[in-house]
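During the second year of the project, the team shifted from modelling isolated chains to modelling whole assemblies. The rationale, set out in the original proposal, was that interfaces cannot be judged from single-chain predictions alone. As a representative example for this report, we include one of the complexes processed in the last quarter. Its constituent sequences, exactly as entered into the pipeline, are reproduced here:
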Amino acid sequence: MAEENVIQAVELDEYIRPANTDIVDAEQASRRDPQESNSSEAEGANRDIDSRDPDFQQAEITEKKDRLGIVRDDPQVTSWIHDATEDAAREKEQPKKEPEPKYPFNDADPIFAYYGNDKRSLLFFVLRQPDGPQGQPGPTETHQVHNTKEHEEAWYWVHKLLGQESINKNTNKEIDRVSKDRKKHEVEAKDQQHKADQEELFQAKITAFEMDVVRTTSHRQLKSKIRRATTILELTANVGAIIALEYKDESTPN
Amino acid sequence: MNQPPTKGFVLVASFSKPYFDAAIHAAISIKDYWPEAKIELYTHKEWWDEKYRDIFDHVHLEVPCHVRAKLWALTKTPYDISCYVDADIYCQSEDIKYIFDELDDQHDMAMSCNRPYNAKVVYITRDEELTHYKPEHKELIKTAKVHEWDFEGPGGCWRMKWHCGLFVYKKNERTFKMLDMWYKNYRTQIESNPKKNWPYNWPSSLWYWDTFAFFNTNYNVDYDVKIKEIHAKWNYVKGYRDDRELTKGEEIVFWHYTIPNDLVDRSTLNDPDIRNRIGNFDVIK
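Output from the structure prediction step:
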């Protein structure tokens, strides 16, 4: 294979090689006659240095790199017959390219976009208007479009300019942000509820002890239970128990 | 013949109405478990109701409108030995009658210690508040001092040791001198602006805490006030862990809860000279 390439290269060299272009196929280079004439003095000097550098030599041998990419594999087909019917069939097979819709944003550019729903039929995007006359950055504005005929142009151009991958990536980021926010709000709401419950409980205990029957009762354990109550229900039950016992004490003859 | 020292509880409820409600609550609980207990209350006239007269031995109805009016009130106690209790506390054991026995002849005050696992801040350096769980802080807090003269060591870390929500104290010159200085230092810190003219070489985040003022008063001045550490059961703060603090059969005497902050903030006294949420020591009501 390499041998053939050399032959081809030599043939090319004879006929079509442009001026100042040298053949640098790795294997060929390694077998080049050191006495071969150099196109310039500098090139000659470089070649001398390369030939003295064992690492370079080794690299040339082991890598066998086509550094300029001019070596090609053997062509599989070497002759062609132009067949008009085949061309027509091929053309028919290919989907007809529809003309691109008109660019709807005038001089503005979409710079950021993400899908706004699970069905991915709603797209939010940010448009950046052109910079001002003094070079001040153009203002940005947020828009949303649906994947419908009405918004076809915007939908097409945002996807074309920003790319599906980028929009997907932004969408995932947005989902993460929304989830995080939702979680934060849930924690805050829970915290708020806990505070409200504690407040209600504290106030209920104060109210309970404003009742003479509770404040003056001799049933100390029940009073203590009211103080330690962790729910309104527990508190109410103990207040009820005190009232019941006081009523019983009153109605029991000494 | 010498009279036995008088002993009683000091309760202070100022600036925000829930403190008053809680103080009444606390006093009733003390009386439930120790009907002979003497209790003194410092509060505002506009909250007072004569129906509570039976509970208290002394009632003072002119106090500074400040959330820390307790620091003003401490040295006004009529008792020889006083037990100051925060308003958000209630008694739940008959052992309360032994609380004054905790203060022996060798000590001037009896206090429980702050638990680092349950306190906003206990250990500090000159620059920051430390935590008890961060590895880099753990090493540092081993060398923490309460006073400058405590021991020779690498230093640099300080411990705000004492919990200031309940303590027993004697009426004597050195103790009252220190308590007065605590009040003065607290006023200095609370009346400064922590962002503009914080007067100390300590983290300004400590601005609000009377616990810091207590530490700051005592860390480099020796008032010769001897403080004895008492068991957590006397001042059992919400969040304390029973498995750490109580052995079998030990009974909590005072349960220390917290009044919901939002309620406190919403229920403060109105006065044109009070323009913040903590009050003004100069406004007496």
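The helical segments of chain B are 17-33, 70-73, 135-141, 173-190, 210-218, 242-245, 261-266. Residues 101 and 168 of chain B are 10 Å apart (CA to CA).
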